[in-house]
Amino acid sequence: MRDLDYLIVGTGFSGAVLAERLSSIKKKVLVIEKRSHLGGNSYDYYDEHGILVHKYGPHYFRTNDKNIFNYLSKFTKWRHYEYRVRTSVDGNLYPFPINRDTLNQFFNTNLKTEDEAKEFLKTKIVSIKNPGNAEEQILATLGKELYEKFYKNYTKKQWNIAPTKLESSVTARIPVRYNTDDRYFNEEIQAMPLNGYFKLFENLLENIEIWFNTPFNKVKNDLEYKNLIYTGPIDEFFDYKFGKLPYRSLKFVHENYDKEFYQNWVQINYPNDYDYTRIVEIKHATGQNCSNTTIVKEYPSDQGKPFYPIPTKYNLALYKNYEQEALKLKNSYFIGRLATYRYLNMDEVVKNALDLFQMLQKKK
Ligand code: UDP
């Protein structure tokens, strides 16, 4: 292979953004992708019923960072859409994240202001000085009843470990509100790529050479390159020398219905019933106009493609060993959710990729 400046492994947001940026400054880049499609876990496609679906679970784009949004806007138009989710508890649907309406509906109260909601929650929360795990984090902000009904079983189902073993950052992803804002996220910009993620990735990677169905291990000894950008699971890169890093996966069960919408919300969570965690009807967010619909039930699983790092103390310590090894390698950069073992959102991944590009640009 010719004189490559960069070999980039993976076509998710990390790999695609870096490939685009580096080739814009005339670096010779080759991208390899072990799957047969672009986009990593953000990939979407039209299913056999003509519905645009997210193959690896819903990807709700949101950010507060205008630079990131402007950068991506060179490759896609957007459909502004605020994601709204409900949680099903004992047969009733509640706004989620928990807000004042959730409190009033659940506790049968009539709280009218943010202060009233705060005061009310003070009577419910458990006093914990430094919440050290997911369970304590919720007990300290919402108390036992809400924890038990909205968080405990969902978290067990999703991660298959006790919430006391999970880092508090996992549940702290979900805001708690004293007002009646029922959006899933707080970010200022909430939008879906107008023609889907796949098109966005096609535009990002236009004119860049990509080898599909090409795992890094298959070609690593045959290719010569000055720099490596690796976005796959970091433990795989090092042949699991310190042991396997657990990643959580999901199995998706798709169902198509011959009606415009199946449910009123893009996502309904089922913490306490069923083996699936949620039903997503992505059509609400994509805005597709058609007479049928596809929904997806998500069943958490230990088996399958890696989607989520599992942030427990043990796993994070194990990751540190790999990180140390990675730092010893010259001209090799590990980036993204799988390679840095961090529960990153898409905008954070794009930010990290743009930051790494800045750094690489300065490199001689
Ligand atoms: N969570 C929960 N109940 C819910 C939704 C989320 O307990 O109804 C917890 C659960 O531990 C989950 C975490 O909050 O893994 C983060 O949820 P989020 O919706 O951000 O997860 P993602 O969409 O990334 O799977």
Could you please describe the fold and organization of this structure?
By secondary structure, the chain is an alpha/beta fold. The longest helix has 17 residues, at 346-362. Helix content is 32%, strand content 21%. It has a seven-stranded mixed beta sheet with strand order 8-7-13-14-15-12-16. Helix 1 links the parallel strand 1 (4-9) and strand 2 (29-32). Among the domains are: 3-38 and 205-246 and 310-362, NAD(P)-binding Rossmann-like Domain (Rossmann fold, 3-Layer(aba) Sandwich), CATH 3.40.50; 99-172, no CATH class. Residues 87, 96, 150-151, 154-155, 158, 170-171, 173-174, 269, 271 line the site of uridine-5'-diphosphate.
Question: Keywords, please?
Answer:
364 residues; 7-stranded mixed beta sheet; single chain; 13 helices; 5-stranded parallel beta sheet; binds uridine-5'-diphosphate; alpha/beta; Rossmann fold
Quick structural summary:
The chain is an alpha/beta fold and 364 residues long. It contains 13 helices and 17 strands. The mean pLDDT is 97.
Task: Reconstruct the topology from this structure.
Layout: E1 4-9, H1 13-24, E2 29-32, E3 44-46, E4 52-54, E5 62-63, H2 66-72, E6 78-80, E7 85-89, E8 92-96, H3 100-107, H4 114-122, H5 134-142, H6 144-159, H7 168-171, E9 189-193, H8 197-204, E10 209-211, H9 216-219, E11 225-230, H10 234-237, E12 247-257, E13 267-269, E14 278-280, H11 283-286, E15 293-301, E16 308-309, H12 313-328, E17 332-334, H13 346-362
Parallel strand pairs: 1-2, 1-11, 2-10, 7-13, 11-17
Antiparallel strand pairs: 3-4, 5-9, 6-9, 7-8, 12-15, 12-16, 13-14, 14-15
Uridine-5'-diphosphate is lined by residues 87, 96, 150-151, 154-155, 158, 170-171, 173-174, 269, 271.
